[in-house]
Prior knowledge:
Radius of gyration: 45 Å
Strand order of the largest sheet: 6-5-7-4-8-3-9-10-11
Number of helices: 34
Helix content: 55-70%
Oligomer: single chain
Shape: extended
Amino acid sequence: MNLDQPIDAETTAPEAPFVKSEPSDDSSAFLSIPGAASSESFLDPDAVQSDAPSAPLSPSHQDGTEVTTSLDVAIKADPETQSDQQHESHEAHVKGTNYLERLVAESVPEVLESGVAIGVDLLDKLKTTLSTFITPEVDAWLKSIDELKARATPNRTVVGVVGNTGAGKSSVINALLDEERLLPTNCLRACTASPTEISYNYSDDPSELYRAEIEFITAEEWIKELEVLFNDLLDGSGHVSRESSNADSEAGIAYAKLKAVYPLKTKEMIAQGSPERFATELSPRGVLGSVKTLKEGSAKDLYRRLQHYVDSKEKVTDNDHRKRDAPMEYWPLIKVVRIYTKANALSTGAVIVDLPGVQDSNAARAAVAEKYMKSCTGLWIVAPITRAVDDKTAKSLLGDSFKRQLKYDGTYSAVSFICSKTDDISITEAVDSLDLEEEISESWNKTEELEKSKRGSQSYLAELKERKGVLDREVDEIDNSCDLWDEIQDDISMGKTVYAPPNYSKKRKRPQKRFQSRKSRGSYGPGADDDYDNDSSDKENSQSDKPLTEQDVEEKLASFKAQRKKKREERRELNAQIANVRNQIEETEAERQVILAEIKARCIQGRNNYSRGAIKQDFSMGIRELDQENAAEEDDTAFDPDQDLRDYDEVARSLPVFCVSSRAYQKLSGRLRKDDFQGHGFMSPEDTEIPQLQQHAKKLTEARRASNCRRFLNDLTQLTNSMKLWASSDGTQSILTDVERRREEMHLRKLLNDLEKGLEASVEEAVQLVKQSLYDNVYNIFDSSIPLAVNAALDTAHGWGAHRALGGLAWATYKATVRRNGVYCGAAGPRDFNQELFDPVSRNLATGWERAFQHRLPTVMKEFAEKTKKQLREFHDAVQARAQDRQTTVSGMITLSSQISAHMRTLEQLPETLRTTITELQREASRQFTPAICNAMRYAYETCVAENGPGSYSRMKYAMANHVEASRHTMFRQATDTVKTQLEAMCRSVRKSLTDGTEDMFSVIFRDYMKVIVGTTVDRHAKLSPQELNMRTTLNNVLARSDSMFGPALGEPIVEEPQQAEGTTPAGTADPVEGENEQGNVLGEAVSVKREPLSDVEAPTDTEGDAEMDDAIQDLEDDASLVDADELIRQQLGAESESDDDDDVDFAWDF
């Protein structure tokens, strides 16, 4: 059938009997609602019977009796029993409070998250209500509630941070977290660092505001690591290599790791040991495979405890003379460190991962780093700004293989650059390189004038200090004289005879300056006083034999005190002058520093802007070069270098680049108090760009947060709609005659059958398009590129062992690489033999892979969503048109319209949901090429490792070349077949997701539409217990008030829902319900009426019922599509009638 044509509700084409499979248990992409009808219910005789009296659904049958046509409609004989005011009030309320559906359309994450929190509270209320009466149906609802609550958990947004040693990653991350020092560091070697994951800490316990988990490698992983360490450390004779004393050699690194874990082992003991024995020793065995949890109330305490595990205490590796009680160190055994902190930048779900590199010498840590790389939503590349300017970081920092992997992963748009250490700048060099001379010349001249003024003030200050020194000496001399004459006065007061001292000018010993200016000596020097002293001395000496009177002593003391007072006054004035000059110098220097800071800030800003533009341009040009290289190799005859394959200007514009100074930010934030660092050039924290980086981290989470919240709220809408339909049913509301109900059921089943077939066809079409896209863009390139790799393989292998001048490897590097299965990161940089062999295929495949997974497959998913949305819309329109034509289920259609809108929103979210799944699977598949090559090369690696002694290097190269020659015709096909198998599994996963999702959605649609259009089908002898009726009543009340709960999330006041009168129920009673419309039903709410069984007098006979049934069936015989179903129902009714006669049950069919 043509799925693009509208579904004809009245088509007469014969259809096969409708059969529906059980709904899938997989609710990963679609909400699973319990209670959907299965194929078994279609053969149940009760499915076409009702124990409630029926009448033809027409106005002539509604006089004087209140009946229920379907689940959601109560028709009253006298519509005037409810006031128009109540009807208008509630109708306006319903129209104005569709808060939940309005929330689903929101885009602000914070608003959506507040709605999710309210939704979780609503689910708790529903669960509490349902738990009061447990049945299998209730159990299914409770399971759906638990599954939906689990999906309310926020998604993590993983941001990987990469950069070379010394790039300042840890400092940038610490500043991002607003912590002076939190990330652990290792002072031994950068290659020993573990991946560190930093997440938000949701605990409010003061004792664990900072928490960390240290995960250690397993015993099996440590044995593998020990095997590599032993190979690196021991020479061909089985002894510890002499290179172990060189900390930078492979033997030195291996020795350092072994001594860290086994501090008491001597070289001889290591040489006699084995990896298996070492791994089973008590010390490491206690931590292998375990997780250590640390909890602290401050960052300082957590950092201190973390350092105990991650830092190396022994920095020297050339001796065995450690203390006998030296503790074991843990850093070689750590796989990953997880830190939880209350950093605002992480509060929205961002997870920062400090990645040391995927080519770590420890295979377990390398695997962890690779796993994080696959799951990263964002990738931050950190480099010092000096390299960004001088070395074209955007192109040189990212190697070709790294950039190619970005294409495979589709993460170009997720890359951000961080230029660190922007405070490290030379103003002179910056002015010259940025051509700022003219711009800052006026400011620079002002600083020189201020510097000149400062030097003049400093010279004057020095002169004042010399004059002050002279005054200080004079005051000291006078003080000495006063002390001496005070003693003389004391003696004469005691009646002693005293004489003038022969030389009373004894001075206190004070250091004097070696040099004094002539001016100082002339004006303020001791010259004048020397003359006075000399004259006085002569006079005193001449009178020394004459006793002094008390008056003489007093006169002499008064003279000295007057001199002292005068000198002290002069010194005070001089001190004031010195203080004033010092203030002038400080003010001048402060003014100069302000201008210099402005100049530095201008230079920093200029360099930042230049670097930002250069990095953006270099990054886009690097991608352009890679695109052109791939295009030329893919089809050199059609390659046009002047034709851009993408908008590279947009690539440049969209690349976020941050030029940050973590030290300046920390200093401006009041931290780093012990560091002698002046944050000149940064007027505010915003100038450091750390606050902008913090906002960037929060913004990265917005899209996933909003998508996750909208999906939850949409699923909540579907769940509450279905629960409203279920909660309003007491099992007795359908009053359609069997003929009418059969007519509506068969028509609805035909529409449902068409819908199901259309959905199945859409799924199949989408899967086939996915497969075709992979064939066109991936598999075809496999076939064309494998011969290139086969031809280049031997030359690649010979190149590894070529002369150093020709790019070959040193023996030690070659040996270290084969020991690690072809992957090694040494002083010369990273090498990957497996990747180098596969490069001819990888280069050609990158563009096609990106085209398939980043463009074609998302388009296929969007087309699928649009097509299935159209099918749902046409189905619902057909059902609604029939309901309107027959004036039935008016209120129930309101709920169904809301439900079908929720289903279509689910389909709108489907492309993004499936894209996430496909991205995870294709990233995993794209990383299986080199492991497959590694497996094919393993024999060569083992053979090379086994070689030792004279000529071993030559034999290693020969064995390598022979193996490559023998394996090159098969290993590339094996690698591509491995990936092809994974991609085919991905297709099956896509098919399952689409199939399960559409089946789950269809099951809900089937159950809801059958319930509203046809009515509830239950065993006519079954009656709901009062307890269950009460539970459904309470649940219906909760659902009736549920929408108003979401008003505050949208900034709306809470609207009180109409309260139900005590003692009434919305399901199972005939009492009037506040807010009923003119037909007596509440819009959007399901209301049913319980009917008493007809008396024996009123009940028609079976014969009359059969006759009316035959007449009705005769009227429908022109509908060929219902013939088979009619015959089936006729047989079921006859069988049921016979069964009732056999059981002597006094019951008659109502027509």
